[in-house]
Amino acid sequence: MVGKIFAVVLVLITLATAYCVMAHVWWMPVDISVHGPKIDHQLEETILVAGLLFVAGQLVLAAFAFLYGGVGKKPKQIPGGAKPLVIFAFVLVGAEILALSFIGSKAWGAVYFEAPDPASMRIDVQAGQFAYYFRYPGPDGTFGALHPDLMNEGTQNYFGLDTDHDADAKDDIVTAELAIPVNKPILLMLHSKDVGHSFYVRELRVQQDFVPGLNIPIHFTAIKTGRFEIVCTQLCGLGHYNMKAYLSVLSPSDFDDWLKKQAAMQ
Amino acid sequence: MKTHYRIAAMALLLLLIAVGLLRSAPGVGATATAQITGTVKLDGPAPHQKPIDMSKDPSCAQTGGGTQVSTENVVVGANGGLANVVVYISQGLTGNEAVTPSQPATIDQKGCQYVPHVLAMNVGQHLTVLNSDKTAHNIHPQPNPAGGNAQWNKSQTPGSSPLDVAWSNEEVAIPVKCNIHPWMHAYIAVVKGPFGVSNQTGSFKLDNVPPGTYTLTAWQETYGTQTQKVTVAAGKPATADFTFKAK
Q: Which of A103, A226, B114, B125 falls 20 to 30 Å from A149 in CA-CA distance?
């Protein structure tokens, strides 16, 4: 009796779970990027394959519990022993993971190993405990050199720019918010001021670690306007939970206005 | 006769020493102390103060009430008066003045800024750290490692009880930052003896200064220090004005 109740409950839980996934009850946030569909497709494949195995596994378990389960019953032997079954499961799961890796590496390569559009707008991103700051090159299109010894949060010189002597740095625009024009290829250059961090915008389907000492490029194109949260997804210290900024995807004219306003605030 | 003179001279000497000891004994500050007042001015144009973008933390942006907050590295009031300058006695203290105030100093975190931006206090005096904001702060003083004051880093969530801390060594001034809100900056000057911090008009006052000749130091976070000698006579207020040159 216990075995039968267990089997029924297990089947109900499995079906409810499968329904939630298939009906997209809790699904991924809206995608605002050009490359996003590839990532989403990969996720869907993974969920589909893993989900089929999950359902099959639970149903087999329920069937065994229904047929042979119960308190005080002598365990039944699997006909022919468990060995072939274990080998079969190993091969099946192995083949599945291998297939997902191959399909996944294609999607990954399409996002990470394609060269950025030469017409990309380049923006510097600096992560530090516990905030992001962004830098636009200004009218000259050139970023000024960074001088870590000149970094001073008290004077808002977060990047360590030598604006007194460096003409390139003079017109650099440093902001606390990342604004980008919609439908324009963006190339972010990530660097960390201190420890490891991770740049993550769910809606952009972009997540990239900061590694101290490295400049790490990441490129994407946003196709929907709006305001989205940028969070840090690498435990970076006491204030990690509070490390965030906002991404504003603006129409080209709104972006120009925004950048002018930011330039005036420097 | 000679011995009488000797005894009288001895007695007189002892009396003088006794009186001298009494006068210099702590707590017997019956000698009239005086006030040193003065004004700090900035000669030249004040440097541009950058507006602060608090969009990272929406609750900070709200408490500002829409007013644009800027950095406070150089705050110049009416008639070129320079605010937030710490004036203290750097030389000439006899030790009698260093009676630690029983009242704690207070620094608040309000609108995601430190209030006040520059705080002066005595060695050993208690400091109360408040958080009036609806967001968590992280108060992180960074004293000079060689100065003997310990660095610490404490989080303060909204509504949590005030922190009570103190400094054991003199230091002008300890920078204080908030790791969560990098724009938040303050300075805490820890001194011995009387001190003053200039207000919006640049004026300051040091209370209860015993008579003597002192070296007065004025410290400003951007422009550094200036010193001058000042002589205080019993009960007579003295003045000392400082002028910092804009870079």
A: B114
